[in-house]
Model the fold of this input.
Amino acid sequence: MRSASRPGLALAWLTAIVGGCIVLPEPEPQPVVIEFVNQTSLDVQPNFYASDTATDAAGLFVAANLDTSFIDRPFPELRPAENTSMTRACGVVRSLGVRQPVLFDAASLAVTTSEDQIFLLRDADFTCGATIRFVYFTEGEAFRVRVEYPQ
Done:
């Protein structure tokens, strides 16, 4: 038997074969894909938050959960009309959301903060394997964000 160097493994297989059943490990849940879409002609600071433990907005929207890993530039902003995404293991995304994203006009130095807040809880608002898209847009004079669940 080739697995003599790993006797524990050989014993486990022998036990499974003799016992008449094979126990397979649970499959890993599908990851969550998170997309960011800037539909504006200005820079956007998404203000994205993610947590493996928070179950309400108060627990999610704290400085420790601010996540800028969607971009590898010094400033965590989406450029005009830029799209990006990231993938997270489902087990480390209990909740996620966006709180008061910021629109920035580099030419005039004008800053517009949205009042929008989106809180999403796993198994209530999304499931493992989901794709979640945050879309940043302007509506008249207002700067907004919405969530979509593309197929």
Residues 1-7, 13-18 have pLDDT under 50 and may be disordered. Residues 26-148 form a domain with the Immunoglobulin-like fold (CATH 2.60.40). The chain has two helices and ten strands. Helices lie at 7-19, 57-60.
